[in-house]
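Q: Structure tokens for this one, please.
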Amino acid sequence: MKISIKSVLSVLILVIMMAVFSGNCLAQKATDAMFADGSLEYHFLLNDAVNVSETYMPTLPAQIIEQLAPMFLVKAEGSHDVGMYVDTPDRLLQQQNLILRVKEGKITLKARGATPDSVLDLEKCDKKKYEIDYSGQADYSISSDLKFKDDEFDITFTAITPQKLYAFIQSRCPTMYTYLTPIVNDARVRIPGVASQYEFEASLSPDHPAVKKAEITLTIWFMAPKDETIVELAYSGAASDKDALDALQSETIEFLKSKGLLHAEQQSKTELYFDTFLE
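A: Here is the predicted structure, written as tokens:
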């Protein structure tokens, strides 16, 4: 069969157009409007006032419950998870405003920046979320989750490697893999450590005006063998309730200060993880 030069050129032009179109889709920046129906999340890094030990987890020491009362009512029994992050020592992904996280049953790629147009509007894998995080300052974030079962991918620290992670992502969600091109061939990429993570549900006192508008958690991360602990109080709610949630933020700051619980430096758990394991 004879193939004309015109046909070959037509195919090449089509391939180029598809590549450009695909690249533009993956490079699409976020806009303010995308966050209008998203969620707001407020984070408060706490002092570890009682030197909490993982030995007692997942039961929260009564001293911590008493410290956060009466404004916050924290349940004593919590849940456990493990988590780890992936990047180069000089944080190449972070330089692209990207965060790659692995937890039990879920891989998350998050685009985060100080303004909407500084983050990519990531393609959806299994779940996608728009959120504005407040950890001392506002950060816009878009996350895409890839879910898996325990027997599909082994995340134990003795088994997982960056290359195995890339291969699994590529097989299950090729668009997520595309965003990782800055690091996939970089031999310096590390999964520097595992955070043992405990989460406890909490609520506001029943008579608080925002009691039905805020979902509250207390999170404690233990990072062995570095012997470091992160304690964080956080709450989230709908963007439509921003006024009430902002008011709760101011009230929470004053309450935590009065108890001597508000940490002097407010940082995200992600940055504290890398500060700890890459120091």
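A few notes: Residues 88-189 form one domain. Residues 5-26 form the longest helix (22 residues).
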